[in-house]
Amino acid sequence: MRRRHSGERFQSVYSKHNEEKVVEAEEVGGCTRTKIVPFKGYIISEQSEMKANESEGRSAQFLLKPQKPIQPYICSTLGDFEEERDFLASYIFPQLNELCNTRGTYFKAVDLRSSVLEAQIPSLSNLFRQQFCLQSQHLKLCLDYVNSCFPFFICLLGQTYGDFLHNYSPVIFSKATDLSSLSRVEQNLYVAAKNGYPWVLEYPTCSLMELEVIQAAFLNESQFQYFYFRSGTMPLKTWDEEKEEMLSSGCLTDDEERLKIGMLKAKIISKGLPVRLYRDLHELGELILKDWLVVIEKLCPATVMTENTDFKHNFERFYHEEFTEKCKEVFVISKESSRIFEILERFALKDMESDFNSPAACSSLDSVLRINPLPAYKSILLLSGERGCGKSTLLANWVNYFKKKYPNMLLIPHFVGSTCESSDIMSVIHYFITELQYKHYGTQLETDILNEDANISAFSLLVDMFIASINVKPCILVLDGIEELAGIYGISGEKVKDISWLPGSLSPHCKLIMSTISSSLSYKSLCARPDVRTVELVSTVDKEVQLRIFREHLSFSNRDPFRQSRYSLRKKTNLSPLKLTILANEYQECRIYRNEFQCLKEYLGAASIQELWGLILKRWVEDYSWALKQKKANSDTVASGEGLDGWVSDTLCLLSVSHFGLAEDEIYQLLDMLGYKGHYKVTTLHWAAFRNATRHWLQEKPNGLLYFRHQSLRSAVEQKLLGVVTPVRESSPYSFQDPVNHKKTHFHRILVKYFQRQTDFWRVYQELPWHLKMSGCWEDLSSFLSSPSITDFITKTQSPSFWTRLHLIHYWNVLSEMGYDATEAYLLTAAKIKADQCQKMKKRCTLSGTVSTNVSMVCSAGL
After folding, report:
1. Residue 581 is part of which domain span?
2. Segments of the chain scoring below 50 in pLDDT
3. Ramachandran class of 143: left when φ > 0, alpha when ψ lies in -120 to 50, beta otherwise
4. Domain check: are 398 and 335 in the same one?
5. Beta-bridge mates of residue 3
6. Which of 210, 326, 614, 821 gets the most CB atoms within 10 Å of its CB?
7. Is residue 617 assigned to a domain?
8. What count of Cα atoms within 13 Å lies in the side-chain half-sphere of residue 409?
9. Are residues 293 and 323 located together in one domain of the fold?
10. What angle do CA 430, 656, 696 make, to 5 degrees?
């Protein structure tokens, strides 16, 4: 894809559903006219053409760089700008998102509307409690999202200022023992001040809206903040009419409010922040399109892209990079981590030249031919430790450290669990091969193992290619979390986990660093190999280091976070980094709903990670959720998952059975399908409170899909909420027949109904056939795979990814076991297409003949 800038006019080309379009912006009479129109060719600048010529011969697949999402926070006074917000959400933001999709990212405006605070709630005690907590933490939630959306911010200002304290006394807060004794504004100031935003008490008479502006624009600096002032001519009403309307809606604008909104606008203008004036919705839409198209062009410039090309590998690489960046944010250096860093570095830098002169160096052909002599060197380093001891975070930070220190050395990391599909062994091996191919030759992998002799195992061919790839040049491969590897597509789980697929000796060119838990089958199998060096990562028992890890995960400072529980902390010797991370996240979220010290005491009493997750799932359900039919949860029923019903439980179950994860808007629609509507509807504020508690554990991929960041939470959800024994991703296609899996099958079928109604091809292809397979809908699966639309799209896709082809073949293999024939299905589809075309031709001929007859009759009558 290419772009051109020309004077005051610019165009940006993108493709959707195989139709080229262009976003066109033009300065006309001081206003920007922006529209999306059909486009019939590429716009090529001289610079981009030169770059394209220079890169000729190199696959376009590696030229697309996925970008981070653009998520502006929408700020305005409460209860105002409903029409503007609806217009932007329906017409403007979708256009910006379409453009971002073609740049490898997405655009999602965060709009925490407060209408939920005024809604009438059914007589359920849990909802009343949640409603009160939401009212009191509304400001805190908004400030949290202003921070998470930074540096992007959109502010809509008119004539209203919002709720504020006319009279403020510090004594009110110092003597407050019960939030219910405070007004709503006082409650919000108190909760925000106690939970990371003490500065709000420096502005006690500011409205909640102005506090959002202060957080975004006055306490922080960003070039991606825009303010849109509604001009006074827009309402086209007299002041008396306007005042009467405000009085009827409960928001009378008095002299003090007019003064405050005027002063806020003056401060915004004085600071030099971008301000736009608009009179109507159309003008607002044009202004926002113009401003945010510039932002997109700056942050996510168009790149050379080949139409109908599957760019999946680029995104997979980006997910691993994103994973390492997130791990870097919370890493705490300790003596143990420094020791492991040194061991890893020495192992990776071990002089390979001396190894090349050894007898083992002459046996690279033996390695390719699967001859397994006893190696004279250690080519594999296995990092082990208990679950949650920090192996992934340590390896991710070591990868960053090593790449910066030795930029010329080839190091390729793969973190199993960083994405939903990263646990499949065939995808993992193919990822390494593709990366090695690109690093060695600058081209994508061209050998199509899935088109080879059907009698030869595709997996065996893939392993042979992997062995050949690591023999070309020196390389260091990092594979983290091998205990989570699975054979999703036809390979037995046991073969994957016992690492029997790995040749007995590796090329001296390759150093392989792997990590696993000490109790896994992978660990036992690898320890039996003579070419493996084992290193154990021991969880730190240093209390100061533990406190540093704990504080690192707090969004607000607290010198002594444990206070009353500090003695309990000192007595605990099994506080792994994972447990400390869980405790820190829960400490800062549960305190809004309950006594945080009692909560921590209960959590510290958990004997295992799974027991701890059980307690946390119980809290999430109690504090954020409600059920369509209430059931009581207690300590006796938590272990079995009974009583843990409601939209939070349903959301976690839907995520656990999904194939690639789910986007927020998809979850909203699915919850609506399940019956959470009307008074039971999950609003953006309810969702925001839940996401604050789960942000570290339900992470959002760069494509907007939510997934489980840690396997321990996924396992807890599957066992305690779904009630399954075998992990979902390792279940056989026939697991739906087992009564134990009835709840899992139910959610698979819900997702079948949902994705059958969707139109986004890649999302449907990612999810629908997976759920059809897992719920035993063989006829529907066969019809989907052989449908004209699917066949047409896949055949038009240039260089479909390994994943795309692997899934297509896998699904047909499953159907073949059930007696379905792919050839017969496609021939039947072709016959239907031909019959439909013949029918259309007959109708045209009939219509043409009828018209001719009528014309002849008219002519005859005239004569």
Report:
1. 540-605
2. 1-63, 116-122, 233-239, 242-243, 246, 250, 252, 304-310, 352-374, 455, 559, 565, 567, 633-640, 855, 863
3. alpha
4. yes
5. 12
6. 210
7. no
8. 21
9. no
10. 90
